[in-house]
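Thread title: Can someone regenerate the structure for this chain?

I was given the following input by a collaborator and told the matching C-alpha coordinates would be attached. They weren't. Posting the sequence so someone can regenerate them.
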Amino acid sequence: MAFFDTLRQNAAALSIPGWRPLTRWLRRWLPTGLYTRSLLIVILPMLLLQTAVAAVFMERHWRMVTERLSDGTVRDIAAIIEVIRSYPQDSNYNEITRIADQTLDLTIAVEENGQLPPPRPRPFFSILDSILTDQITQQIKMPFWLDTVGDSKLVEIRIKLDQRVLRVFVRRGSTYASNTHIFLVWMVSIALVLVLISILFLRGQIRPILSLANAAESFGKGQKTEGFSPRGADEVRRAGLAFIQMRERIERQMEQRTAMLAGISHDLRTILTRFKLQLALAGDKPELSGMTEDVNDMQSMLEGYLAFAKGEAEEDFGTLKLSELLERFRSDFELRGRKLTYEIDGEDEIAVRPNAFARLAGNLVSNAERYAKTLHIHAKHSAKWLTLTLDDDGPGIPAESREEVFKPFYRLDEARNLDSSGTGLGLAIARDIARAHGGNVTLGESPSGGLRAIVRIPA
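Best answer:
Regenerated them for you:
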Protein backbone atom coordinates (compact mmCIF):
# COMPACT_ATOMS: atom_id res chain seq x y z
CA MET A 1 0.00 0.00 0.00
CA ALA A 2 2.19 2.82 1.31
CA PHE A 3 5.21 1.05 -0.19
CA PHE A 4 3.93 1.56 -3.76
CA ASP A 5 2.94 5.19 -3.13
CA THR A 6 6.40 5.90 -1.71
CA LEU A 7 7.99 4.10 -4.66
CA ARG A 8 6.03 6.24 -7.11
CA GLN A 9 6.91 9.46 -5.27
CA ASN A 10 10.61 8.61 -5.05
CA ALA A 11 10.73 7.64 -8.71
CA ALA A 12 8.92 10.83 -9.69
CA ALA A 13 11.30 12.92 -7.58
CA LEU A 14 14.34 11.67 -9.44
CA SER A 15 15.61 14.17 -11.97
CA ILE A 16 17.87 11.72 -13.76
CA PRO A 17 16.57 11.36 -17.35
CA GLY A 18 17.22 7.62 -17.32
CA TRP A 19 14.65 7.15 -14.55
CA ARG A 20 11.81 8.80 -16.45
CA PRO A 21 10.85 5.69 -18.48
CA LEU A 22 10.88 3.67 -15.26
CA THR A 23 8.65 6.28 -13.61
CA ARG A 24 6.15 6.11 -16.45
CA TRP A 25 6.22 2.31 -16.35
CA LEU A 26 5.57 2.27 -12.59
CA ARG A 27 2.66 4.66 -12.89
CA ARG A 28 1.13 2.63 -15.69
CA TRP A 29 1.62 -0.92 -14.51
CA LEU A 30 1.76 -0.91 -10.72
CA PRO A 31 -1.57 -2.07 -9.30
CA THR A 32 -3.88 0.31 -7.46
CA GLY A 33 -6.08 -2.20 -5.64
CA LEU A 34 -5.42 -2.91 -1.96
CA TYR A 35 -5.75 -6.68 -2.41
CA THR A 36 -3.28 -6.83 -5.32
CA ARG A 37 -0.81 -4.55 -3.58
CA SER A 38 -0.95 -6.64 -0.42
CA LEU A 39 -0.28 -9.82 -2.40
CA LEU A 40 2.69 -8.22 -4.12
CA ILE A 41 4.08 -7.05 -0.78
CA VAL A 42 3.98 -10.68 0.38
CA ILE A 43 5.08 -12.37 -2.84
CA LEU A 44 7.85 -10.05 -4.10
CA PRO A 45 10.14 -10.35 -1.04
CA MET A 46 9.65 -14.12 -1.10
CA LEU A 47 10.60 -14.29 -4.78
CA LEU A 48 13.64 -12.07 -4.22
CA LEU A 49 14.77 -14.22 -1.29
CA GLN A 50 14.37 -17.45 -3.22
CA THR A 51 16.17 -15.99 -6.21
CA ALA A 52 19.08 -14.95 -4.02
CA VAL A 53 19.21 -18.41 -2.37
CA ALA A 54 19.09 -20.18 -5.72
CA ALA A 55 21.67 -17.89 -7.31
CA VAL A 56 24.17 -17.87 -4.45
CA PHE A 57 23.80 -20.83 -2.12
CA MET A 58 22.47 -23.38 -4.59
CA GLU A 59 24.96 -22.50 -7.30
CA ARG A 60 27.90 -22.81 -4.88
CA HIS A 61 26.54 -25.99 -3.35
CA TRP A 62 25.87 -27.51 -6.75
CA ARG A 63 29.33 -26.65 -8.06
CA MET A 64 31.13 -27.80 -4.91
CA VAL A 65 29.41 -31.22 -4.83
CA THR A 66 29.94 -31.68 -8.58
CA GLU A 67 33.64 -30.81 -8.24
CA ARG A 68 34.16 -33.37 -5.49
CA LEU A 69 32.32 -36.14 -7.35
CA SER A 70 34.15 -35.38 -10.60
CA ASP A 71 37.48 -35.25 -8.77
CA GLY A 72 36.89 -38.74 -7.34
CA THR A 73 35.88 -40.15 -10.71
CA VAL A 74 38.89 -38.67 -12.49
CA ARG A 75 41.21 -40.04 -9.75
CA ASP A 76 39.78 -43.52 -10.35
CA ILE A 77 40.37 -43.17 -14.09
CA ALA A 78 43.91 -41.92 -13.46
CA ALA A 79 44.57 -44.98 -11.25
CA ILE A 80 43.31 -47.32 -14.01
CA ILE A 81 45.55 -45.58 -16.56
CA GLU A 82 48.54 -45.95 -14.22
CA VAL A 83 47.84 -49.68 -13.78
CA ILE A 84 47.50 -50.21 -17.53
CA ARG A 85 50.77 -48.41 -18.24
CA SER A 86 52.75 -49.88 -15.36
CA TYR A 87 51.69 -53.52 -15.34
CA PRO A 88 51.34 -56.02 -18.19
CA GLN A 89 47.75 -56.81 -19.17
CA ASP A 90 46.13 -59.70 -21.00
CA SER A 91 45.16 -59.19 -24.60
CA ASN A 92 41.52 -58.38 -23.77
CA TYR A 93 42.20 -56.41 -20.57
CA ASN A 94 39.76 -58.66 -18.76
CA GLU A 95 41.32 -58.32 -15.33
CA ILE A 96 41.52 -54.53 -15.26
CA THR A 97 37.99 -54.36 -16.70
CA ARG A 98 36.74 -56.60 -13.90
CA ILE A 99 38.50 -54.54 -11.21
CA ALA A 100 37.10 -51.30 -12.65
CA ASP A 101 33.59 -52.71 -12.80
CA GLN A 102 33.45 -54.39 -9.41
CA THR A 103 35.58 -52.04 -7.33
CA LEU A 104 35.28 -48.62 -8.95
CA ASP A 105 31.84 -48.97 -10.60
CA LEU A 106 33.33 -48.00 -13.96
CA THR A 107 32.81 -49.66 -17.34
CA ILE A 108 35.97 -49.51 -19.41
CA ALA A 109 37.22 -50.76 -22.76
CA VAL A 110 40.63 -50.44 -24.40
CA GLU A 111 40.80 -49.97 -28.17
CA GLU A 112 44.09 -50.78 -29.84
CA ASN A 113 45.19 -48.30 -32.49
CA GLY A 114 42.13 -46.20 -31.68
CA GLN A 115 41.65 -42.55 -32.42
CA LEU A 116 39.72 -39.84 -30.60
CA PRO A 117 36.55 -38.54 -32.31
CA PRO A 118 36.45 -34.94 -33.50
CA PRO A 119 35.95 -32.45 -30.65
CA ARG A 120 32.31 -31.70 -29.84
CA PRO A 121 30.93 -28.20 -29.26
CA ARG A 122 31.20 -27.36 -25.60
CA PRO A 123 27.81 -26.86 -23.90
CA PHE A 124 27.36 -23.30 -22.70
CA PHE A 125 25.50 -24.02 -19.45
CA SER A 126 26.96 -27.45 -18.59
CA ILE A 127 28.69 -27.33 -15.20
CA LEU A 128 29.57 -31.03 -15.46
CA ASP A 129 31.33 -30.62 -18.81
CA SER A 130 33.46 -27.70 -17.64
CA ILE A 131 34.39 -29.30 -14.29
CA LEU A 132 35.27 -32.70 -15.83
CA THR A 133 37.36 -30.99 -18.50
CA ASP A 134 39.30 -29.07 -15.87
CA GLN A 135 39.83 -32.16 -13.70
CA ILE A 136 41.05 -34.37 -16.56
CA THR A 137 43.34 -31.62 -17.80
CA GLN A 138 44.89 -31.16 -14.36
CA GLN A 139 45.17 -34.81 -13.23
CA ILE A 140 45.59 -36.97 -16.34
CA LYS A 141 47.21 -34.45 -18.72
CA MET A 142 46.54 -36.55 -21.82
CA PRO A 143 44.41 -35.94 -24.91
CA PHE A 144 40.79 -36.80 -24.19
CA TRP A 145 37.28 -36.64 -25.59
CA LEU A 146 34.20 -36.04 -23.47
CA ASP A 147 30.47 -36.59 -23.98
CA THR A 148 28.20 -35.22 -21.24
CA VAL A 149 25.39 -34.04 -23.50
CA GLY A 150 21.99 -35.70 -23.56
CA ASP A 151 19.62 -37.34 -21.12
CA SER A 152 21.62 -40.56 -20.86
CA LYS A 153 22.45 -41.82 -17.37
CA LEU A 154 26.05 -42.44 -18.51
CA VAL A 155 28.94 -40.11 -19.23
CA GLU A 156 31.53 -41.24 -21.78
CA ILE A 157 35.21 -40.32 -21.42
CA ARG A 158 37.92 -41.32 -23.93
CA ILE A 159 41.62 -40.98 -23.08
CA LYS A 160 44.40 -41.28 -25.67
CA LEU A 161 47.13 -43.67 -24.37
CA ASP A 162 49.91 -43.71 -26.95
CA GLN A 163 48.50 -46.16 -29.56
CA ARG A 164 45.50 -47.08 -27.49
CA VAL A 165 42.26 -45.34 -26.48
CA LEU A 166 40.71 -45.98 -23.10
CA ARG A 167 36.93 -45.68 -23.14
CA VAL A 168 35.30 -45.13 -19.75
CA PHE A 169 31.56 -45.15 -19.06
CA VAL A 170 30.61 -43.75 -15.67
CA ARG A 171 27.21 -43.16 -14.16
CA ARG A 172 26.19 -39.51 -14.35
CA GLY A 173 25.20 -39.56 -10.68
CA SER A 174 28.81 -40.44 -9.74
CA THR A 175 30.11 -37.22 -11.32
CA TYR A 176 27.25 -34.80 -10.91
CA ALA A 177 25.04 -33.46 -8.09
CA SER A 178 21.86 -34.73 -9.68
CA ASN A 179 19.58 -34.52 -6.62
CA THR A 180 19.87 -30.76 -6.09
CA HIS A 181 16.45 -30.23 -7.69
CA ILE A 182 14.86 -31.88 -4.65
CA PHE A 183 15.79 -28.87 -2.54
CA LEU A 184 14.40 -26.55 -5.19
CA VAL A 185 11.15 -28.52 -5.33
CA TRP A 186 10.81 -28.29 -1.55
CA MET A 187 11.58 -24.58 -1.58
CA VAL A 188 9.05 -23.82 -4.32
CA SER A 189 6.41 -26.05 -2.73
CA ILE A 190 6.74 -24.34 0.63
CA ALA A 191 6.59 -20.95 -1.09
CA LEU A 192 3.37 -21.94 -2.87
CA VAL A 193 1.84 -23.09 0.40
CA LEU A 194 2.80 -19.79 2.07
CA VAL A 195 1.38 -17.81 -0.83
CA LEU A 196 -1.88 -19.78 -0.64
CA ILE A 197 -2.14 -19.11 3.09
CA SER A 198 -1.41 -15.42 2.44
CA ILE A 199 -4.12 -15.26 -0.22
CA LEU A 200 -6.70 -16.80 2.08
CA PHE A 201 -5.69 -14.52 4.95
CA LEU A 202 -5.67 -11.38 2.81
CA ARG A 203 -9.05 -12.19 1.32
CA GLY A 204 -10.45 -12.37 4.83
CA GLN A 205 -8.87 -9.02 5.69
CA ILE A 206 -9.81 -7.24 2.45
CA ARG A 207 -13.43 -8.45 2.34
CA PRO A 208 -14.61 -6.20 5.25
CA ILE A 209 -12.95 -3.20 3.59
CA LEU A 210 -14.70 -3.94 0.29
CA SER A 211 -17.98 -4.37 2.15
CA LEU A 212 -17.50 -0.98 3.81
CA ALA A 213 -16.65 0.63 0.47
CA ASN A 214 -19.74 -0.88 -1.19
CA ALA A 215 -21.95 0.25 1.68
CA ALA A 216 -20.57 3.80 1.52
CA GLU A 217 -20.95 3.88 -2.28
CA SER A 218 -24.54 2.62 -2.09
CA PHE A 219 -25.41 5.17 0.60
CA GLY A 220 -23.83 7.91 -1.51
CA LYS A 221 -26.11 6.91 -4.38
CA GLY A 222 -29.12 7.00 -2.09
CA GLN A 223 -29.58 3.23 -2.04
CA LYS A 224 -30.35 1.20 1.05
CA THR A 225 -27.38 -0.33 2.90
CA GLU A 226 -29.17 -2.92 5.00
CA GLY A 227 -27.21 -5.94 6.18
CA PHE A 228 -23.91 -4.13 6.65
CA SER A 229 -22.11 -4.79 9.93
CA PRO A 230 -18.50 -3.95 10.93
CA ARG A 231 -16.14 -6.93 10.57
CA GLY A 232 -12.42 -7.58 10.30
CA ALA A 233 -9.53 -5.93 12.12
CA ASP A 234 -10.06 -3.35 14.85
CA GLU A 235 -9.27 -0.43 12.55
CA VAL A 236 -11.72 -1.65 9.93
CA ARG A 237 -14.40 -2.19 12.60
CA ARG A 238 -13.87 1.36 13.85
CA ALA A 239 -14.24 2.72 10.32
CA GLY A 240 -17.39 0.63 9.78
CA LEU A 241 -18.89 1.78 13.08
CA ALA A 242 -18.10 5.41 12.23
CA PHE A 243 -19.85 4.97 8.88
CA ILE A 244 -22.96 3.49 10.52
CA GLN A 245 -23.12 6.36 13.01
CA MET A 246 -22.68 8.90 10.22
CA ARG A 247 -25.41 7.24 8.15
CA GLU A 248 -27.79 7.22 11.12
CA ARG A 249 -27.13 10.91 11.81
CA ILE A 250 -27.77 11.83 8.19
CA GLU A 251 -30.95 9.75 8.01
CA ARG A 252 -32.16 11.20 11.31
CA GLN A 253 -31.50 14.72 10.04
CA MET A 254 -33.38 13.98 6.83
CA GLU A 255 -36.33 12.60 8.79
CA GLN A 256 -36.39 15.66 11.04
CA ARG A 257 -36.25 17.95 8.04
CA THR A 258 -39.08 16.09 6.33
CA ALA A 259 -41.23 16.18 9.47
CA MET A 260 -40.54 19.89 9.94
CA LEU A 261 -41.39 20.65 6.31
CA ALA A 262 -44.59 18.64 6.57
CA GLY A 263 -45.65 20.80 9.52
CA ILE A 264 -44.70 24.01 7.72
CA SER A 265 -46.56 22.82 4.64
CA HIS A 266 -49.72 22.15 6.64
CA ASP A 267 -49.65 25.53 8.40
CA LEU A 268 -48.87 27.60 5.32
CA ARG A 269 -51.39 25.77 3.18
CA THR A 270 -54.02 26.43 5.79
CA ILE A 271 -53.28 30.17 5.70
CA LEU A 272 -53.25 30.21 1.91
CA THR A 273 -56.58 28.39 1.86
CA ARG A 274 -58.02 31.07 4.13
CA PHE A 275 -56.70 33.80 1.83
CA LYS A 276 -58.28 32.09 -1.17
CA LEU A 277 -61.58 31.69 0.64
CA GLN A 278 -61.62 35.36 1.70
CA LEU A 279 -60.80 36.45 -1.83
CA ALA A 280 -63.55 34.23 -3.19
CA LEU A 281 -66.07 35.73 -0.73
CA ALA A 282 -64.94 39.24 -1.58
CA GLY A 283 -66.03 38.68 -5.15
CA ASP A 284 -64.42 39.32 -8.49
CA LYS A 285 -63.18 42.87 -7.92
CA PRO A 286 -60.46 44.41 -10.08
CA GLU A 287 -58.57 45.79 -7.08
CA LEU A 288 -58.20 42.23 -5.69
CA SER A 289 -56.72 40.68 -8.86
CA GLY A 290 -53.17 41.52 -7.81
CA MET A 291 -53.69 39.91 -4.43
CA THR A 292 -55.05 36.78 -6.11
CA GLU A 293 -51.95 36.53 -8.28
CA ASP A 294 -49.73 37.02 -5.22
CA VAL A 295 -51.50 34.17 -3.42
CA ASN A 296 -51.07 31.89 -6.44
CA ASP A 297 -47.39 32.81 -6.66
CA MET A 298 -46.94 32.11 -2.96
CA GLN A 299 -48.54 28.69 -3.34
CA SER A 300 -46.38 27.89 -6.38
CA MET A 301 -43.21 28.92 -4.57
CA LEU A 302 -44.22 26.98 -1.47
CA GLU A 303 -44.83 23.81 -3.47
CA GLY A 304 -41.55 24.25 -5.32
CA TYR A 305 -39.59 24.81 -2.12
CA LEU A 306 -41.14 21.80 -0.42
CA ALA A 307 -40.39 19.64 -3.44
CA PHE A 308 -36.78 20.84 -3.48
CA ALA A 309 -36.20 20.37 0.25
CA LYS A 310 -38.01 17.06 0.55
CA GLY A 311 -36.63 15.57 -2.65
CA GLU A 312 -37.33 12.01 -3.68
CA ALA A 313 -35.26 10.21 -1.01
CA GLU A 314 -38.13 8.01 0.05
CA GLU A 315 -38.48 6.49 -3.43
CA ASP A 316 -36.91 3.06 -4.00
CA PHE A 317 -34.73 2.21 -6.97
CA GLY A 318 -36.45 0.69 -9.96
CA THR A 319 -36.13 0.47 -13.74
CA LEU A 320 -37.00 3.07 -16.33
CA LYS A 321 -36.91 2.96 -20.12
CA LEU A 322 -35.15 5.93 -21.61
CA SER A 323 -36.95 5.63 -24.93
CA GLU A 324 -40.39 5.97 -23.29
CA LEU A 325 -39.31 8.96 -21.21
CA LEU A 326 -37.65 10.79 -24.11
CA GLU A 327 -40.56 10.03 -26.41
CA ARG A 328 -42.90 11.65 -23.91
CA PHE A 329 -40.70 14.73 -23.86
CA ARG A 330 -40.69 14.81 -27.66
CA SER A 331 -44.49 14.74 -27.77
CA ASP A 332 -44.70 17.66 -25.32
CA PHE A 333 -42.25 19.63 -27.46
CA GLU A 334 -44.34 19.05 -30.59
CA LEU A 335 -47.49 20.25 -28.83
CA ARG A 336 -45.73 23.57 -28.20
CA GLY A 337 -44.54 23.87 -31.78
CA ARG A 338 -40.92 23.01 -30.99
CA LYS A 339 -38.60 20.22 -32.13
CA LEU A 340 -36.88 17.60 -29.95
CA THR A 341 -34.63 14.83 -31.23
CA TYR A 342 -32.85 12.15 -29.27
CA GLU A 343 -30.52 9.17 -29.64
CA ILE A 344 -29.64 6.37 -27.22
CA ASP A 345 -26.31 4.54 -27.10
CA GLY A 346 -26.33 1.37 -25.01
CA GLU A 347 -29.07 -0.29 -23.00
CA ASP A 348 -32.47 1.35 -23.05
CA GLU A 349 -33.43 0.25 -19.54
CA ILE A 350 -31.75 2.02 -16.62
CA ALA A 351 -31.77 1.44 -12.82
CA VAL A 352 -32.73 4.70 -11.07
CA ARG A 353 -35.46 6.17 -8.92
CA PRO A 354 -37.98 6.41 -11.76
CA ASN A 355 -40.03 9.39 -10.57
CA ALA A 356 -37.03 11.36 -9.36
CA PHE A 357 -35.06 10.77 -12.56
CA ALA A 358 -38.06 11.68 -14.68
CA ARG A 359 -38.35 14.91 -12.70
CA LEU A 360 -34.63 15.61 -13.12
CA ALA A 361 -34.80 15.22 -16.90
CA GLY A 362 -38.17 16.98 -17.03
CA ASN A 363 -36.82 20.07 -15.28
CA LEU A 364 -33.96 20.35 -17.77
CA VAL A 365 -36.25 19.73 -20.75
CA SER A 366 -38.79 22.28 -19.44
CA ASN A 367 -36.01 24.81 -18.98
CA ALA A 368 -34.98 24.33 -22.61
CA GLU A 369 -38.61 24.36 -23.73
CA ARG A 370 -39.12 27.91 -22.42
CA TYR A 371 -36.22 29.49 -24.25
CA ALA A 372 -35.26 27.27 -27.21
CA LYS A 373 -36.90 26.10 -30.41
CA THR A 374 -34.90 22.88 -30.83
CA LEU A 375 -33.41 20.44 -28.35
CA HIS A 376 -31.24 17.40 -28.97
CA ILE A 377 -30.73 14.76 -26.26
CA HIS A 378 -27.92 12.21 -26.48
CA ALA A 379 -28.18 9.38 -23.93
CA LYS A 380 -25.12 7.15 -23.46
CA HIS A 381 -25.52 4.13 -21.17
CA SER A 382 -22.19 2.38 -20.55
CA ALA A 383 -21.23 -0.27 -18.03
CA LYS A 384 -20.36 2.31 -15.35
CA TRP A 385 -22.09 5.58 -16.21
CA LEU A 386 -25.30 6.98 -17.64
CA THR A 387 -24.76 10.30 -19.39
CA LEU A 388 -27.49 12.59 -20.74
CA THR A 389 -26.36 15.51 -22.90
CA LEU A 390 -29.01 18.14 -23.70
CA ASP A 391 -28.10 20.74 -26.37
CA ASP A 392 -30.53 23.56 -27.22
CA ASP A 393 -30.39 26.68 -29.42
CA GLY A 394 -31.64 29.15 -26.82
CA PRO A 395 -29.89 32.25 -25.44
CA GLY A 396 -27.74 30.17 -23.09
CA ILE A 397 -26.33 31.16 -19.71
CA PRO A 398 -23.14 33.22 -19.23
CA ALA A 399 -20.16 31.18 -18.08
CA GLU A 400 -19.81 33.16 -14.85
CA SER A 401 -23.42 32.34 -13.87
CA ARG A 402 -23.51 28.62 -14.67
CA GLU A 403 -22.86 27.63 -11.07
CA GLU A 404 -24.97 30.38 -9.56
CA VAL A 405 -28.14 29.17 -11.29
CA PHE A 406 -28.02 25.95 -9.25
CA LYS A 407 -28.67 27.92 -6.06
CA PRO A 408 -32.28 27.74 -4.82
CA PHE A 409 -34.46 30.69 -5.91
CA TYR A 410 -31.62 32.20 -7.94
CA ARG A 411 -32.91 33.87 -11.11
CA LEU A 412 -31.00 35.64 -13.85
CA ASP A 413 -31.92 39.20 -14.64
CA GLU A 414 -31.86 38.37 -18.32
CA ALA A 415 -32.22 35.44 -20.72
CA ARG A 416 -33.34 32.07 -19.41
CA ASN A 417 -34.77 32.66 -15.92
CA LEU A 418 -36.75 35.81 -16.53
CA ASP A 419 -40.17 34.18 -16.92
CA SER A 420 -42.78 34.92 -14.27
CA SER A 421 -43.87 31.29 -13.96
CA GLY A 422 -40.52 30.00 -12.72
CA THR A 423 -39.50 29.82 -9.07
CA GLY A 424 -35.74 29.47 -9.58
CA LEU A 425 -35.74 25.89 -8.30
CA GLY A 426 -35.73 23.79 -11.47
CA LEU A 427 -31.95 23.46 -11.85
CA ALA A 428 -31.43 23.21 -8.08
CA ILE A 429 -33.86 20.29 -7.90
CA ALA A 430 -32.23 18.64 -10.93
CA ARG A 431 -28.76 18.79 -9.37
CA ASP A 432 -30.11 17.65 -5.99
CA ILE A 433 -31.67 14.56 -7.60
CA ALA A 434 -28.53 13.81 -9.62
CA ARG A 435 -26.33 14.02 -6.54
CA ALA A 436 -28.77 11.82 -4.64
CA HIS A 437 -28.02 9.21 -7.35
CA GLY A 438 -24.27 9.70 -6.86
CA GLY A 439 -23.83 11.89 -9.94
CA ASN A 440 -24.01 15.55 -10.94
CA VAL A 441 -25.40 18.08 -13.40
CA THR A 442 -23.09 20.53 -15.15
CA LEU A 443 -23.69 23.30 -17.68
CA GLY A 444 -21.70 24.35 -20.70
CA GLU A 445 -21.95 25.85 -24.16
CA SER A 446 -23.91 23.95 -26.78
CA PRO A 447 -22.64 23.50 -30.35
CA SER A 448 -26.05 24.86 -31.39
CA GLY A 449 -25.25 28.17 -29.71
CA GLY A 450 -27.40 27.69 -26.63
CA LEU A 451 -26.97 25.81 -23.38
CA ARG A 452 -25.56 22.34 -22.90
CA ALA A 453 -26.68 20.45 -19.79
CA ILE A 454 -24.84 17.23 -18.92
CA VAL A 455 -26.31 14.73 -16.47
CA ARG A 456 -23.87 12.03 -15.34
CA ILE A 457 -24.86 9.38 -12.80
CA PRO A 458 -23.51 5.90 -12.02
CA ALA A 459 -25.19 3.17 -14.04
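The CA atoms of residues 128 and 188 lie 24 Å apart.
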